[in-house]
Amino acid sequence: MTLKPLFLAAVAALSCTAAQAQTAPLKVGLMLPATGTFAALGDAIEKGFRLYVQEQGGKLSGREIQYMKVDDESDPSKATDNVNKLIKRDNVDVIVGTVHSGVALAMARAARESNTLLIVPNAGADAITGPQCAPNIFRSSFSNWQPGYAAGVVASGKGYKKAVTITWNYAAGSETVKGFTEGFEKGGGKVAKDLNLPFPNVEFQALLTEIAAQKPDVVFAFFAGGGAVKFVKDYDAAGLKKNIPLVASGFLTDGTLEAQGASAQGILSTLHYADNLDTPRNNAFRKSYALTYKQQPDVYAVQGYDAAQMLGAGLAAVKGDFKQRDALQAAMAKASVDSPRGKFTLSPQRNPVQDIYLREAKGVNNESRGVAVKALADPGRGCKV
Ligand code: BEZ
């Protein structure tokens, strides 16, 4: 037997496996909170991600998406074990997660060590697109610094001089406050006191008494999910809302307005999304989400939707061939994402460069009151690649 038929058979077998690899389902590991104070946030992210895939006919560049799921419980102590269930046990191609900054930091470490593609659809931990950055780590959301800094710019622009900040004592809280302080003090304000409590505690009473004693011109707050609902109600019930204005990171009132009711009305906040952005893209997204899920989307849904768009852009560039990882990641890095929030690109550290809106809580919507800071890029301090 000559070598030629053997050679041809080998080539045929190889191209067959390559073709199979290009059409086999792509495994997406969703590591999100399904329980605890951030459960609703995880649910909205998953719905947003699935919606974009569904709008593409259930496939991205010919690849069906197979979902594997882990509830991370927003618990950093379980994060490494949880992410390894997806990486080592389920052998996923891509991880999408998560909400909590502390959990996401452990995920980023595992993704970097195993070179698994990671798209962060919420957690703002600055280090993920800072010192812990890597070519396989992307974010579809924000860095903690971004909404905090913009709130500081807004508060100082309103002429407030003395601020008190209040948040949970973990990366998202302290980094958001750091951003606020930078923006506020650059504009001539001074942060008189930083108050905090452990995540996810909601016993705010002693801290609210301290705020009243401090008599600041403005209070800056970062809380989200169930904790944000309780904080806004307690702030109002303590009689503070009518005397000391809140300027918040937008997570305080996003996805929470129905539960916060009258206590939230009029609260100003900064974020990269507002419900009433009257653009064809946002209107179409909101209609599609409402039709599919019989509920209104929020910023978390947008971030999930855009995580899928980013993956879609990478897969389109390699025609669904996930093995071409370098080309896929390069395409993701230079994608212009047509988001409901407005088009955005990624910084060299792979974090969105985006407009941060000033919003006002009105009814069940966070309505835009204009752009607080245009095309804000996280400084990406400490990122080497
Ligand atoms: C965070 O932990 O990074 C986070 C959680 C909820 C909303 C925004 C940020």
Low-confidence stretches: none
* C-alpha end-to-end distance: 52 Å
Largest β-sheet summary:
8 strands, mixed
Fraction of residues in β-strands: 15-25%
Structural class: alpha/beta
Q: Which outline best applies?
A: globular
Q: How many β strands by DSSP?
A: 14
- Tell me the series of helices and strands, N- to C-terminal: HEHEEHEHEEHEHEHEHEHEHHHEEE
Task: Round the mean pLDDT to the nearest integer and report it.
Answer: 95
The DSSP helix count reads: 12
Rg, nearest Å:
22 Å
Topology:
Layout: H1 3-23, E1 26-32, H2 39-55, E2 59-60, E3 63-71, H3 79-89, E4 94-96, H4 101-114, E5 117-120, E6 137-139, H5 145-157, E7 162-168, H6 171-186, E8 190-197, H7 205-214, E9 218-222, H8 225-237, E10 246-249, H9 257-260, E11 268-271, H10 280-293, H11 299-317, H12 325-333, E12 345-346, E13 352-362, E14 365-376
Parallel strand pairs: 1-3, 1-4, 4-5, 5-6, 7-8, 7-9, 9-10, 10-11
Antiparallel strand pairs: 2-3, 11-13, 12-13, 13-14
The structure holds benzoic acid.
Benzoic acid binds at residues 38, 99-101, 122-125, 172, 224, 251.
Overview of the molecule:
It is built from twelve helices and 14 strands. With 385 residues, the protein is of the alpha/beta class. The strands form two sheets. Strands 7, 8, 9, 10, 11, 12, 13 and 14 form an eight-stranded mixed beta sheet that branches. Strands 2-3-1-4-5-6 form a six-stranded mixed beta sheet, sandwiched between helices. The longest helix is centred in the N-terminal third of the chain and has 21 residues, at 3-23. Residues 38, 99-101, 122-125, 172, 224, 251 line the site of benzoic acid.
